[in-house]
Amino acid sequence: MQNILQHFQLGELNSGVSTGNSWLHSNGEKIVSSSPVDGKVIGTVQAADRAAYDAAISSAQKAYPIWKAIPAPRRGEIVRQIGEGLRKNKEALGKLVSYEMGKSLQEGYGEVQEMIDICDFAVGLSRQLHGLTMHSERPGHRMYEQYHPLGIVGIISAFNFPVAVWSWNSMLAWVCGDVCVWKPSEKTPLTAIACQRITAEVFAANDVPEGVSCLVIGNRDAGEWMAADERVPLVSATGSTRMGKSVAAVVAGRLGKSLLELGGNNAIIITENADLDMSLIGAVFGAVGTAGQRCTTTRRLIIHESVYDAFKDKLVSAYKQLRIGDPLDQHNHVGPLIDQDAVKAYLASIEAVKAEGGKFVVEGGVLSGAGYESGCYVKPCIAEVENHYKIVQHETFAPILYLIKYSTLDQAIALQNGVPQGLSSAIMTLNLREAEQFLSNAGSDCGIANVNIGTSGAEIGGAFGGEKETGGGRESGSDAWKAYMRRQTNTINYSTKLPLAQGIKFDF
Ligand code: NAD
To answer: Which end of the chain has less neighbouring CB within 10 Å, N or C?
Structure first.
C-alpha cells in the first residue's frame, strides 16, 4: 500500500482544497483516514475552512466562461483522456478504494471500471446533447429547443462509492460545459485526492484553467455551505435520506436545483416459479456484497410460501460458507463495515429486530481476534420478520437480510412497495405473467425494477436513481445529462410579418 500512497502523493496533507493542480491554504480541522481493513491510519488531510471553500468556488466561477466556450466534442476529448488516466491507474486506485473503504478488491476494481465506462459514455454524449425541433403554428417560423450548461455543479458524495459517484456526475457535467466542485465523504478523503491528481494532470496537459475541477475535503459543514450557496445552481447529493431532506430543503429555499440519490430498502420477490439456484446467487451477493453497504443492497426477500422453507435452507447453508476477512484477499467474500459507528448501528438494528419479534435464522455478531483487529468485521445475518416492523422500514447500512413470506403476487408487490424508499427491486420468476405484472404500472414503484437479476448494482448505460425517499434523481446513462443543463426554447421568424401566437391581433 505504501507505494500506492507515494504514487498518489498521499500521507500528511496540509490542504484538502484544490482547484486542479493548486492546493489552497486552509485552517480547517484535520481529518484522519483510517482503514477499516486493519484499523491503521492511512493519512491525514486538512479539511476546508470557509475561506478555502470560497476560494475554490471563486476559481470555479472564473473557469466557467472559458470551459463552456470550448466546443462540447473537444470537452469530450478531454474526458476521454481522463478515462485513459483512470485506465492507467485502475489497479492502484482500485486497491486504494478497497483499503480506504473496505470493499473487496474486485469491487474496488469494478468501481474504477465504472468510472472508465462513464468516461466512454460521456465522450459519445459530447457529440449529441440534443434538443428537439417542433413545427411552429405560425408561417415562416422555426421552433426548436437547445440545452446550455448551468454553471457550477456541486457534488456531495457518500463513503460507499467513494469515487464512482463523483465520476457519474462530473464526467457528464464536464461534457455539458459545467464546472464541478466535489465534496467527498469525510470517511474516504484519500481516494478523492487520488482522483483529483489524475484529473488535474489531464486538464493541465490540455491547457484547461484551474477551477474546472475543484475538490473540497470537509465534514458535513462543507456540504451545508454548498447547499446554501447561490453560486452553485445545481447540487447533486448522494447519501442518507436524512442528509437529502436537509439538502433538498436548503437548495429549494433558494430555488436552486438538486439531484438526490438517497437510501434504498430493496427487495427481491422470489415466486413459486423462480429458478431457486439463480435466485440464491442474486440474493446472497445482493445482501452481503460490499458488506451490505450498497444503496442497492438486497435488504428484504419476499418469498412465496410454497418455496419459503426450501429457499431458507439454501440461504442458511450458503451463509455458512461465507468467508469474512481482509477484502484485499480475493478468497474472502465479505469485508468490514466502514467504521465503529456502523458496527454500533448494525448491533442496535439486531436488537431492534429482536425487540419487535423477529427471529434470526442466521445469527449476527462482531468478529474479533487475528485479522479482525479493526473491530469493523461483522457476521452477515438473516432474520424472519414482518414488513411493517419499524426497523424493517428503515435502511440499516449493514448485512442484515430480512425474510418475509407471501401467498399472492398482489400481496408480494404491496409488501415490496410498502416501505418509504424506492430505489431497486427485482422479481425472480420464469413466468411471463408474473414478470410483466411486476414491471407494469401496478407493479414495482422503484426507479429500478429487474427480472431474474438481483437488486444490487447497475450498468452505467441506464439512468440510475429511485423514487420516494430515495430522492427522485437520475444519474449516469440515458438522458440523465439533462439535469446538468438548462433548456431553452427558441422561435425564429424568417417571414416578413410578425404574426402573434394563438391568432391574437395587436394592430396599431
Ligand atoms: P451521509 O448522508 O452520512 O453522508 C453523505 C455525504 O453528505 C457526506 O459527504 C457528508 O459529509 C454529507 N452531508 C451529511 N449531512 C449533510 C448536510 N446536512 N448537508 C450537506 N451535506 C451533508 O451518507 P453515508 O453514510 O456517507 O452513505 C450512506 C448512504 O448513502 C446510504 O443511505 C446509501 O443508501 C446512500 N447512497 C445512495 C446512493 C444512491 O445512488 N441512491 C449511492 C450511494 C449511497
So the answer is: C
